[in-house]
Amino acid sequence: MVVYNRRKRAIYFEDLEKEQAKILGTARSAVAAGSASPAQKALVEGIAEEEALMEKKKAERKLHSRMLWWLHGDWKEDKTLKEQRRAAVEDFKKAEIEEQKSLGITQAVQEARAGAAPTSTAGGPLDQAAANVEKAGKGWFGRWL
């Protein structure tokens, strides 16, 4: 069943991509012919902008990484990862310190409770009523009244 669902999902996404490609193709042909609607123009322009940004980022990433390696001997991505790890470790240490402080308070409360003398409980209302009945009635007829 899992394999069937995965296959159906893959087919669905493949069909969805084909449909989107068909819509984009008709929009591009309409823009080229000059008879495109504003939505088709916006679609083509948006896709073109996204593709340009992706290419620009790829080029910058490659050039920038090479320059950093030549200049500093280290990758910028590694530096950001180190900073993120350092920040995460600091946060973890702060959480541990706060947890230890809270544990100190709970330990003090537990020690105080252990050192206190246990209080005698008189019992609930039914226990008190039963004690009063035992004191009052000594005969068999007195219990019923």
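[next item in queue]
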Amino acid sequence: MDDLNIKNSCLNRKVKNALNSALQGDSTHYEELVDLIHHSQRSNPVKAAMLATCLKTISSAVASIDIVQHRSLLEGIFSMCLWKFNTCVMDALLELIISLASFSAVPLDLCLEMMVSNFVPPAYLLEYLNRPHYVERKKKVFDRVHASLETIFDLVPLSALSLERIVRERMPSVYHREPIILMYVENMLRLESGTMGKLVRNSMLMAIMVRLIDLDVEIPWDVILHDDFVKGDFGANSMAEKLDSLMVVTLEHIKLSSESGRLPLVFETLLQSFKSTVLTAYKSKFAQFVIFYACSLDPENCGQQFAITLLEIFLGNPYLQCRMSAVAYLASYLSRAMFVSDSLVVYMLERLVYWCIEYCKNRDGVSSSNPRAHQMFYAGCQAFMYILCFRFRSLILVPRFKSKLALLRVGEILKHPLNPLKVCLPSIVEEFLRVVRSSGVFAVPENSPASSGLVESELSRAFGGSERLDMFFPFDPYLLKKSGSLISPIFVYWSMVVSPYHEQEDDDEKDSSDEDEADVSVGGDRMMSFDDDDFEVDDDYSD
């Protein structure tokens, strides 16, 4: 032990002398030190011990470091990869990085960039990451990196702002390999839940949502509608595989956030992200289920807030496309979310129908000859009809809800010259009319487009235009396999919905109505009757 201490003491003196000599113009010993750092990647145990001692010595002598004179040394230090060293070298290196980060002469960004570069391993290690040794190595690296980042944050509080920017800028694109994307996002989520979460949460979660959308839009509709995709076989579609895996990581993180009591904070950011990115994304197919899942973890607060936000956007946003998208999301959400209460559904139906009634009042005598001039009206009508296709049966089973539905002036809307039954999507109109006619709750026209079969009119096509509403039910069945296991238990499928008129048909007709072809234009959706949950909406919604 004494011999070891003597050797370490001698090495300490050599390192300090090398640093000081370089400042005096004598670079002989300094070059030896630089060479040790640059050629340390595959060192044997003896050299590894020497390297650790050198790093510790440099750490204690950071005040002697000159960013110009010692540039090559700093370059060597910042290029070192934690994944390649044992824990002794890791700890010594991170101790040095922390010392450099707190030393004003060295740019903080260089230290943070070095730390972020270790969010992912060298490319040659990717194929070994599932082996026990490298699983443990990954944990050791990540634990140390984040502990060090938190230490730097304690020493330099403003480092969080620089770190947030660096992490966003270095985030892998959709074209990187799946393990790289997943590990990087894992570290982003760890930052979000750590001591710097308050400062970096918005940026981390929003960046992840943007990446989910980037992957989402890379998957074309023709691929999604293919039978193999529906069965969970993505074939050569790597984007779908990446998206599926990234959704799992994201949803599991949200679940952990709920368990730790942080869901309100996370949801606030997710809602902001939804309004700024998802809502305006062109026919997003999967990314929106992040907030859908978050709502399921707290229906009374998050779930209700999401619905109210969508309604407010529909009623008051100045941009037509945002309003159209919001009401489509609202209808799809209230129809598909198993965790949404009947109380909230009825309240939202009242608001939608009231808005449509007021629209009709201001346009007496206006016909449906120009549907595109009244897109918002038809979107609102299609929304409440779509919701009723899914939720009508459960609502009329509860007397107070049935009474509320009976008070809705739906008949006035349907009989107005704007004629929504002629313009809205025929499959929804037909299913809606079958449901309400069998119950007698609403007064509906005797002669309607549905009586002549499922035929789309020119007016219906004109209403949709390039933004066809029959192609945009945002919470249609979720077809990603791994992450789908988290969505399926909270999702209402069409095979789960049994309309009252089915009960009047014989068994053969009822069986056929439950088959795939009975879907309400939702592309292979399958649903069954669902049980009402115990979620109670605020008293204001029950009035």
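[queue empty]
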